[in-house]
């Protein structure tokens, strides 16, 4: 073999190794955050959304305020032109944009710039009727969610965030800020703070009318909004649909209400859908499987609370919307 040909051969081999090395570099190289503890930073006080997938179109699981401590579990995700990390915040796992995460030793102090809440983009029922002990739904944020603040006013620190549709209890208020706007103290995931009243709407399905037993069942069920869905779960650590009704009915009535959904459908007395009252059980078919497959607890105003609904948590659903209406099967009153 001629010397020149040998040199070219060696150069080609060297180039091949360089190319392979470049290809082998993981996407995570160059990310500004390492695995382990990190803080939400550089959001100008807006906080960061925790999403269910590494994409701006991913569903928002919760909001994380500026400076919040998180645990970075995995890096190397890309989507929508951003680098993402899988993180854990307050026990919830999801994805956050790396741009807004900084390691505690990075020397990047959290930026806490007071911001003015955006004006509502859609009319919502006035929150003036809310009182301590009521529940309210976050509404009118155009899907952006709302900041929860340490005190009434947009110049106070952000302590948490609530997504659109979050259902929360009212702890205190209303208290007017300098502009005359009403604020209410609420609680979510163990964190209490203040929310602008324009973004809170009354829950249309609060237990009303009906006997005391039914009201007690509905009231107890509403205490577990946000509890996670867990297949075969029968306690607040996690419920499936019939596990939720099994837990609530037995808690209120203290009897041997059956665990299986088939046994629940055979319990109590039949109720015509026009005669539903809070506390009645409502059953559905052809959801995740053919035939009888879902159950919830009616709370009034065509709404029911159930586990394993659209968001895989205990949540409020509309009985007669495009999904649940065609799948309604039967109702039973348990006493």
Describe this structure in words.
This protein is α+β, with helices and mostly antiparallel strands and about 325 residues long. It contains 4 helices and 22 strands. The N and C termini lie far apart (about 95 Å). The N terminus is likely disordered.
List keywords for this structure.
SH3 type barrels, 335 residues, five-stranded antiparallel sheet, endopeptidase fold (from Nostoc punctiforme), alpha+beta, 4 helices, 34% strand
Distance from N terminus to C terminus (CA atoms, Å) equals 95 Å
Helix content range of the residues, please? Answer: 10-25%
**Overall number of structural domains:** 3
Q: How does CATH name the architecture of the largest domain?
A: Alpha-Beta Complex
Question: Radius of gyration over alpha carbons?
Answer: 26 Å
Order of helices and strands: HEEEEEEEEEEEEEEHEEHHEEEEEE
Rounded average pLDDT: 77
User: Count of DSSP helices?
Assistant: 4
CATH topology of the largest domain, anyone? endopeptidase fold (from Nostoc punctiforme)
CATH homologous superfamily (4th level) name of the largest domain? endopeptidase domain like (from Nostoc punctiforme)
Spans of 5+ residues with little confidence (pLDDT < 50)? 1-7, 11-31, 107-127, 204-210
Helices and strands in order:
Layout: H1 3-24, E1 36-40, E2 48-51, E3 60-64, E4 69-79, E5 82-89, E6 92-97, E7 101-102, E8 135-138, E9 146-149, E10 158-162, E11 167-176, E12 182-188, E13 191-196, E14 200-202, H2 212-222, E15 234-235, E16 238-239, H3 241-253, H4 261-265, E17 269-270, E18 281-285, E19 292-300, E20 303-306, E21 315-318, E22 328-333
Antiparallel strand pairs: 1-4, 1-7, 2-3, 4-5, 5-6, 8-11, 8-14, 9-10, 11-12, 12-13, 15-16, 17-22, 18-19, 18-22, 19-20, 20-21
Helix pairs in contact: 2-3
């Amino acid at each position: 073999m001629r010397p020149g040909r040998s040199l070219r051969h060696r150069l080609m081999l060297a180039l091949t190794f360089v190319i392979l090395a470049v290809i082998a570099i993981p996407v995570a190289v160059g990310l500004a955050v390492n695995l382990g503890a990190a803080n939400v930073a550089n959001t100008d006080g807006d906080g960061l959304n925790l999403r269910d997938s590494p994409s701006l179109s991913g569903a928002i699981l919760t909001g994380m305020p500026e400076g919040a401590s998180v645990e970075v579990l995995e890096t190397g995700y890309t989507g929508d032109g951003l680098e993402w990390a899988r993180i854990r915040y307050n026990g919830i796992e999801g994805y956050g944009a790396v741009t807004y995460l900084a390691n505690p030793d990075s020397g990047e102090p959290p930026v806490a710039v007071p911001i003015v809440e955006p004006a509502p983009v859609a009319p919502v029922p006035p929150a003036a009727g809310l009182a301590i002990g009521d529940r309210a739904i976050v509404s009118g944020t155009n899907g952006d969610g709302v900041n929860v603040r340490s005190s009434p006013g947009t110049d106070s620190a952000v302590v948490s965030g609530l997504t659109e549709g979050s259902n929360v209890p009212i702890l205190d208020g209303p208290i007017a800020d300098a502009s005359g706007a009403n604020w209410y103290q609420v609680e979510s995931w163990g964190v209490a703070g203040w929310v602008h009243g324009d973004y809170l709407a009354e829950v249309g399905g609060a237990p009303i009318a009906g006997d005391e037993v039914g009201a007690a069942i509905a009231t107890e069920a509403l205490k577990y909004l946000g509890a996670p869905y867990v297949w075969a779960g029968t306690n607040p650590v996690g419920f499936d649909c019939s596990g939720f009704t099994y837990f609530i009915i037995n808690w209120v009535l203290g009897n041997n209400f059956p665990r299986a959904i088939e046994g629940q459908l055979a319990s109590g007395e039949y109720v015509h859908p026009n005669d539903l009252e809070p506390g009645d059980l409502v059953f559905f078919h052809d959801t995740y499987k053919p035939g009888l497959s879902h159950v919830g607890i009616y709370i009034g105003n065509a709404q029911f609370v159930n586990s394993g609904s659209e968001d895989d948590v205990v949540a409020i659903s509309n009985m007669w919307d495009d999904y649940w209406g065609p799948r309604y099967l039967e109702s039973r009153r348990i006493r």
